[in-house]
Amino acid sequence: MKRSLILAAAAVATITVSSAMAQHANFVLLGQPNPEAAKQAPSDKFVHPISSPYYNEDSFVTSDIRAWYVWHDFDDAPLGGGDAQVYAVQVRLAITDQVQFVAYKDGYLTFDTDAISDDGWNDVAAGLKWNFIQDFENNFHAAVGGGYELAIGDPSVLQNDDDVRLWASADKGFDKFHIGANVNFLIPLSDDDSLRFYWNAHADYYLCEWASAVLEVHGYHTLDDGNAPPPFSTLDVADIGGGPDVVTAAVGAEFRVIENLALRGAWETALTDDDNDLFGWRLTLSAIYSF
């Protein structure tokens, strides 16, 4: 774990910085940034989601690159203990001030458990988000989105699953305190895979110009097991579903020590308790470079 954390920190350190962090995009491919976004006070700005990074999406249209490192420690059952690690990069690009391209899944995944000991590439997933409500006066925003996951990952690390993702989100700020939530439907294109419903809730509090505290809660639910799922939930670690409902909570922080760069981390554990629950605990580290 120590070596992996050093590698993740080195990756974060290589990111360069330029202008100030922003709630909405400084760069817009077609058109101009929303002028109301520039008028926001620093304390009005939300922290972007930290934990459950594949499916925890807020309502804002930004242009940024997000580097991720995740260490996931499993309970003894059902995989016999061990861990999984993920190294990934997400890209978000404002096409207009209300439409965003989101490349939300990729990266390299390693499993080191009694049942699985292998590594390989994740599937790749991307989509579009429409921020259909931008109410800066009341600091309220809402969005919908859709994406597609290409089954080009390695089956040895439980990838290779084409699916369609539909999601919706809403975010509301109260001066220094900000809350948000989103829901996701993962619709498989194979009868062997499961239909899944994931939800995420987020809260952050602006402590000062360089730091915010973050609390997030996540729910993972299987609506239809499909023909041949495993008897346990793989959450967002792998593509296959099934198993019990799982709810987790993460506590973390964001640090804005350099302009245009945010460094974040969160520690997460399960609130539910089931013998077929894979969770254990998780550490998520990330950096966002905005442009």
What can you see in these coordinates?
- The chain has helices at 2-13, 35-38; strands spanning 64-73, 82-94, 99-105, 108-113, 117-121, 124-135, 140-150, 163-174, 177-188, 195-208, 211-224, 246-258, 261-270, 281-290.
- 5% of the residues lie in helices and 51% in strands.
- The model is unreliable at 1-20 (pLDDT under 50).
- It has a twelve-stranded antiparallel beta barrel with strand order 1-2-3-6-7-8-9-10-11-12-13-14.
- With 291 residues, it is mainly beta.
- It has a single domain (2-290), classed as Porin (Beta Barrel), CATH 2.40.160.40.
Q: Output the strand order for the largest sheet.
A: 1-2-3-6-7-8-9-10-11-12-13-14
What's the overall geometry? globular
* Second CATH tier, the architecture: Beta Barrel
Number of domains: 1
How helix-rich are the residues, as a percent range? under 10%
Query: So what's the CATH class?
Result: Mainly Beta
- Poorly predicted regions: 1-20
The count of strands amounts to 14
Overall pLDDT level: 85
Number of helical elements? 2
> CATH-wise, what's the superfamily?
monomeric porin ompg
Radius of gyration: 18 Å
User: Distance between termini?
Assistant: 32 Å
